[in-house]
């Protein structure tokens, strides 16, 4: 199951460079993860300073 970014996202971009498949992009005020590209590695979640990325 792909990771997702919650409303806690502060749009800092810390997760972007950590994604090995470039599944993260900037959305409307927050980052979004393309579930079709996500490989469930968790690298983005580990990089998030506000714990806004969860499995789901």
Describe this structure in a few short sentences.
The chain is mostly beta strands and 56 residues long. It has one helix and four strands.
Detailed description of the structure:
GO terms for molecular function: 4 iron, 4 sulfur cluster binding; electron transfer activity; metal ion binding. Residues 1-28, 29-56 form the 4Fe-4S ferredoxin-type domain. It holds the Pfam family Fer4_9. With 56 residues, this protein is mainly beta. It has a single domain (3-55), classed as 2-Layer Sandwich (Alpha-Beta Plaits), CATH 3.30.70.20. It contains one helix and four strands, in the order βββαβ. The protein has one helix at 43-47, and strands at 3-5, 24-26, 31-33, 53-55. It has a two-stranded antiparallel sheet with strand order 1-4. A hairpin with a 4-residue loop joins β2 and β3 (31-33). The longest helix has 5 residues, at 43-47. It is globular, with a radius of gyration of 10 Å. The mean pLDDT is 97.
List the helices and strands and how they pair.
Layout: E1 3-5, E2 24-26, E3 31-33, H1 43-47, E4 53-55
Antiparallel strand pairs: 1-4, 2-3
Q: Which spans have pLDDT < 50 for at least 5 consecutive residues?
A: none
Q: What is the residue-mean pLDDT, rounded to a whole number?
A: 97
Structural class: mainly beta
Estimate nothing, just give the exact number of structural domains.
1
Please count the helical segments. 1
The helix content is under 10%
- Describe the global form: globular
N-to-C SSE string, H for helix and E for strand: EEEHE
CATH architecture: 2-Layer Sandwich
What is the top-level CATH class? Answer: Alpha Beta
